[in-house]
C-alpha cells in the first residue's frame, strides 16, 4: 500500500475551475474521507487519482511516484488503483467469482480462481460465487465490487459514494463491514461522501470541500471540535448561526455570549453554536416553540428576541413554556467575516 497525495492541484473545465489549489493526503493504510456538497469537486479528485483525466496544475503522487503533473499522466491501467463506485458497475454477464477474478488475468487460472474465492470469503460471499449480479442484493453487489477492487493488491482504493443507493440499516452495516475489511487489509482509501455521519464514522482523516477548495483537512475529532470555517462546522452536524459584533471579547447572541478570543473589539463575526451545545434549564430567558423526537434526543426549537435556534436535549425531559439557556463553550465558535 502507498500514500496518495495531491499537491496544489488545479483542474478546470472550459476555463472554470472545478478544483483550485487542492492539497490533500491519504496516508498509507488509512482512510481519507472527502466530504462536501454536490459539485464541490469530490469526483473530479477521484478521476485525477485514477488517471482518467490530466491535471491542469500541481501533481498527484502515489507513494513517491509522480503519476500526474502538467504534461504527464500515467495511464489508469498502470496506476494499480482499485475503484468502487455508487452503481457497483459489476459485469452483468459474469458471476460474482468471475467479476472478482477479472483483474487477476496475469495469474494462472487455478491461482486466479483460488484468490477470487478467498476475497469473496473475506467479504462473506463465498457461497455466492456462482451467482450473477442480478441475483444479488444491492449490498451483496457492493461487497463483490469491494472484493474485485482489493483482489489485485492495489496501491490504494477509491470509494465514490459506495453506500448511497442502500437503505439506512443495511447502509450502516455495510459501511462498518467495509471499514473492517479496509482496516484488516491496511488499505489506503479515499472515500467520497456527502454524508457527515458516514465521514465521521469511517475516516482517519477528513477533507471538507466546497467550491473546488479544501476548507480543512484534519482528523474527524479535530475538525468537529475546531472547525476552520462556518461551512466546516455546518458540514459536520446541526448548528445555529448568528451575526454580530465583538464587544468586551465576546459576541452577544439572544441566547448568551460566545467568546471571540482571536477577534478585535468591534469586529463583525459569525457565531456558530452546535445544537447539542445548548443546555436548557428551568427559567425564563427563552420561549420553547416546539419539541420533536430526534433519535435519542429531542429537537427543541427555542426563541428569544425574535431569533429561533435548535437545541438537542436529552429525550423526554419535561420542558415548561420558557427556559434558561447555557451555551457550552466546546460547541460554540466565532468566525471573522
Ligand atoms: P462532486 O463530486 O463533489 O459532486 P464534481 O467533481 O462532480 O463534484 O464536480 C465539480 C465541478 O466540476 C462541478 O461544478 C461540475 O459541474 C464540474 N464538472 C465536473 N466534471 C465536468 C466535466 N466533465 N465537464 C464540465 N464540468 C465538469
Q: How would you sum up this structure, described in words?
A:
The chain is of the alpha+beta class. It has eight helices and 20 strands. The chain has helices at about 40-50, 95-100, 110-120, 140-150, 170-185, 195-200, 220-225, 230-235, and strands spanning about 5-15, 15-25, 30-35, 55-60, 65-70, 70-75, 80-85, 155-160, 190-195, 205-210, 215-220, 240-245, 250-255, 255-260, 270-275, 280-295, 295-305, 305-315, 320-325, 330-335. Strands 7-8-9-3-10-11 form a six-stranded mixed β-sheet, sandwiched between helices. It is globular, with a radius of gyration of 24 Å. Adenosine-5'-diphosphate (ADP) binds next to helix 1. Adenosine-5'-diphosphate (ADP) binds near residues 13, 18, 41, 42 and 44.
How far do the termini sit from each other? 42 Å
Mean pLDDT: 93
Q: Per the principal axes of the C-alpha atoms, what is the gross shape? A: globular
**How much is the radius of gyration in Å?**
24 Å
Helix proportion of residues, in percent?
10-25%
Query: Strand share of the residues?
Result: 35-45%
The biggest beta sheet reads: 6 strands, mixed
Q: So how many helices? A: 8
Order of strands in the sheet with most strands: 7-8-9-3-10-11
The run of helices and strands is EEEHEEEEHHHEHEHEEHHEEEEEEEEE
* Structural class based on helices, strands and sheet pairing: alpha+beta
Sequence stretches where pLDDT stays below 50 over 5 or more residues: none
Total count of strands: 20
The molecules bound to the chains, other than polymers, are: adenosine-5'-diphosphate
